[in-house]
Structure formats: C-alpha cells, structure tokens
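User: Please run a holo structure prediction.
Assistant: Happy to. Please share the sequence and the ligand.
User: Here you go; the ligand is 3,4-dihydroxyphenylalanine.
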Amino acid sequence: MLDKINALKTEVEALQASSAEEVEALRLKYLSKKGAVSQLMADFRNVPADQKKAIGMAINELKTLATDKINALKEATELAEDGTDEIDLTRTASPMRLGTRHPLSIVRQEIVSIFGRLGYAVEQGPEIEDDWHVFSALNFAADHPARDMQDTFFIQRNPDVLLRTHTSSVQTRVMERSKPPIRILCPGRVYRNEAISARAHCFFHQVEGLYIDKGVSFADLKQSLLYFAREMFGPETKIRLRPSYFPFTEPSAEMDISCNLCGGKGCGFCKGTGWVEILGCGMVDPNVLDACGIDSKEYSGFAFGMGVERITNLKYRVNDLRLFSENDRRFLNEFTHAH
Ligand code: DAH
C-alpha cells in the first residue's frame, strides 16, 4: 500500500491543468468522496495495526500534497483566464487631486496679462546682482540710505555681490542691451534685510514696468496706470498720484487707488481716507537713460514698480505676509476657484 501511496504522490506532483474544468476534474479524481484519497482512507481500515502509523502518515501527506497542488493549479488557471480582463478600459478613472495655484502667482499672472494687452513683454533678471545694476546705474548716490547694510543682503562680505532689493535692476539690464522702443514688465522676487512679521518679510515680490520711446510723457504713464487699476480692481476705480521721490525717476509719484473695500467713502482698511497706496512710478531720470546707453535727448520713458503681496492683499484681503511662504494647505486651498 505504501508503494501505491508513493506512486500517487509522484503522480500528484506532476499534475498539470490549463483550464478551470481540468482542475475540477483533478479535484474529483483525487479529493472528492469517490476520489483516490478517500479510497485509500477506506482501505486503511484493513491495514495491520503495526503499519497503521506509517501508512496513516503517508495518506495524510498525500492529501495535503494533492490539496496544495490542486489549489495552486486553480489559482494559476484563474489568473491566466482573468489576465485579459485585468485592464478594464471602460472603467471610470479615479479622480485626480489637483493642486492650486499660489495666490501670488495668480495675481502676478493677472498683472502680466493686463499689461500684456498694452504690449508689454515679460523680462527677467538675476536675483544675485551687483551694485551697478541695483543702485549705481539707477542714480543712487554713493551714500544713499537704501544701500545701507540694514536693507541689503550682501554676499561673502563683498559689497559688490548682493541680493537685489528691487526689480528695477532688470530695467538696467534691459536698457543696457536693447534699443528703444522698450516696453517691458519684470516680475520677480526681491530681498531685504527685514525682521519677519505680518507686515514685513525678508523676501517678497515685485512687478516692474518700463516704457521708453520718443516722446513718452507723464500723461502716457497716468493713462496706462489708470487702465491697469480699472482692469485689476474694477471699472469704478479712481487713481490719484502724489509727488514722491525715487532716485531713478524725475518727477516721481506714488499712486493710490480709491479704496476697493468702501469704494472711497472711508473705512478701517483705508484708515478713513478712502485711498490705498499701490505703487511707485515716475519719468525715467535722464541720468539713468544715459548710464544705460540710451540717449536722453532723443528718448524719454516712464517706469513703475509694485509689490505683488500688496496687490494680493487688496484683492484677497491676505494681510499677514507670512502666510504666503508657509505652504499651509488650508490657506492655499482657499484659492482653488480664484482664477
Ligand atoms: N523700486 C522701487 C521700490 O523697490 C519701486 C519703484 C518705484 C519702481 C518707482 C519704479 C518706479 O520703477 O518708477 O520700492
């Protein structure tokens, strides 16, 4: 009987099947009530007592072997048969979780798009700059306070390698390498050595504008900025220009818009004045044109610079600068539908 069991074991080990039906036939042959293993169990009764142990163990081994083998064959044929169905092209795709655009990117993009409609092209320049492009070419006197260590980050104790403190440095670079007419917009990050708080940060973003051609006047500047203000904050928006000072423009001005919260009546946001400041601007100083290789007798131009965080605050009431760089998704997700 042991020989018979061993022969069955060898037979079972070599079993093959290529379909579910074949597997089922094997199950019936070996493991069903009338199968080979049951048959051996029936014969077991007649086994002499001294052989019962060895034969009993052999039958159990055969049963385990057959069960495992047939289960394995079953799994293998099921897999093979399912294989073609595994990629279900008709299934609905799982929803993708989209990120959101950063509020500063949304606002920068809108500024770029508004001036794009007036023919301004986007230009960029390096964030690590030198004194000439950030200050000297822009008519900053050697002892101008803005060069002071307190505002500017210098690199490697070398006063000629610094992080740009404004995007006006891009103006310098573009004027040096191109001939008028020049009509550019320069968005970018700038750095200042400020203690971080809700109202100040060591880096922020600006958009610079520059227009140089023959006969460009202050009236052109005013009209362009009025167009911008109305596109950005709505058609009812008013602007007002206050005299100011920047080394690189003459005359210089700061521009306010009618408070877009109270419509100019006066509220807490505009401190009761009805106006909020949004940018600096002016006619490019002839010294700057000449320093950059543009003949100031032939050409004139205007420039303006605004803080993207400031505009974002006005548009979306984000009044803590730190929120912009914390990457808190609760904050960022508020801008899902903003564009
Ligand atoms: N560069 C100035 C700043 O960082 C902003 C500015 C003011 C830019 C007047 C201009 C301008 O082009 O004409 O505060």
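The chain has two domains: 2-81, 103-335.
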